[in-house]
Design a protein that fits this description.
Shape: rod-shaped
Largest sheet: 6 strands, mixed, barrel
Number of strands: 22
CATH class of the largest domain: Mainly Beta
Order of helices and strands: HEEHEEEEHEEEEEEEEEEEHEEEEHE
Distance between the termini: 181 Å
CATH topology of the largest domain: Barwin-like endoglucanases
Helix content: 10-25%
Structural class: alpha+beta
CATH architecture of the largest domain: Beta Barrel
Length: 351
């Protein structure tokens, strides 16, 4: 090619390259300008790790997807995923990752996914309330949450419990000299009393763990059982007859009848056959000296030697010659009375 033509081709080729470069530069500048105009600045705080990005996306969800950041339903994100990004100011996105916390409460074992900062916030967020007496184990209410933290809530209840307790009665024994030895009888039946006790009872998760007596009072006193035991030993007369007697007197016995000779009264007399005490004279009625044997005393009259026993009698009469150790025995038959004369007897004063 002629040098002239070569120069022309070279001239136009260089010019084309320059034009092309200028065109490319213009396009790039336009693209950059457009990007800079449409770009949104975002600062992402992902659980304390900060990431700064620029994006053409217009929502929180899209910019997270663009940067490979996923969130779970339990995680905290602010602003929400569907929020639009600002064009003119820096967008701040905060993500707090939920961690598992294990809570034992009210008979349940709970696994709670939470992004809350403190134990207090976690419990409140899950509607778990603590009463004044309840006890939290594993951490304090204001402690920071850590992954896998284990908490236990012990329900503590204090209540006053009133119970009745039986008070046993005592058995009181006392001697009875009129009751035969070896025998006994109940004079008063025993009855238990009632004592009321009040306790402060502490329950943990429905189980009693302590009990403190705070009040005690007797509602009903017990009634003691009274039992009498016999001390009296029946004695035998000299002839072996068993008698319950207080004492024995050695006396001289005479005999009398209701006859005029013995009483000075005829059968037509209104007081004929009537003793001093007003009862009718009959077998078993005797006259005594009231200073020795009181009227009305029950007696047993035992003969001495070959003299037969007169038997049971009552002191119901008196007589002019009946003094001291003399006792006058009533008999129906005057002949029997005469045969009796005066004899020695033992007079048992009966109970």
């Amino acid at each position: 090619m002629l040098p002239f033509l070569k120069n022309i081709v070279k001239y136009f080729s260089l010019k084309g390259i320059i034009i092309a470069l200028i065109a490319i530069a213009i396009c790039v500048s336009a693209g950059v300008g457009t990007f800079l105009y449409l770009k949104r600045d975002v600062v992402i705080d992902d659980n304390g790790v900060e990431i700064r990005v620029g994006t053409m996306e217009n929502t929180v969800e899209k910019v997270l997807e663009e940067n490979g950041i996923s969130v779970s339903p339990e995680d905290y994100i602010n602003p929400p995923l569907d929020s639009e990004l600002h064009k003119t100011k820096i967008n701040e996105i905060q993500i707090k990752r939920a961690v598992p916390v294990y809570v034992s409460v009210d008979g349940q074992e709970l696994e709670l996914m939470t992004y809350k900062d403190t134990v207090r916030e976690v419990l409140k967020d899950n509607s778990i309330e603590l009463s004044e007496n309840d006890r939290l184990e594993g951490a304090g209410l204001d402690d920071k949450i850590s992954e896998g933290m284990q908490l236990k809530i012990v329900r503590v209840e204090e209540k006053i419990v009133t119970e009745n307790e039986q008070i046993p009665f005592e058995v009181v024994s006392r001697a009875n000299s009129r009751l035969e030895k070896g025998k006994q009888k109940t004079v008063t039946d025993g009855k238990e009393g009632v004592k009321q006790k009040s306790f402060k009872v502490v329950m943990e998760d429905g189980i009693e763990v302590s009990r403190e007596l705070i009040k005690e009072e007797v509602v009903t006193n017990p009634v003691n059982k009274v039992v009498e035991y016999g001390t009296y030993e029946p004695l035998k007369t000299s002839r072996g007859k068993v008698l319950n007697y207080k004492k024995v007197l050695n006396m001289r016995a005479t005999a009398y009848t209701a006859s005029y000779k013995d009483t000075g009264k005829n059968p037509d007399h209104p007081q004929f056959g009537i003793t001093y005490t007003g009862i009718k004279a009959k077998k078993g009625v005797v006259a005594v000296d009231p200073k020795v044997i009181p009227l009305g005393t029950r007696l047993y009259i035992e003969g001495v030697g070959n003299t037969p026993d007169y038997g049971y009698a009552i002191a119901a009469d008196i007589g002019g010659g009946v003094k001291g150790d003399i006792i006058d025995l009533y008999m129906e038959d005057p002949k029997e009375s005469q045969r009796w004369g005066v004899r020695k007897v033992k007079v048992y004063i009966l109970d």
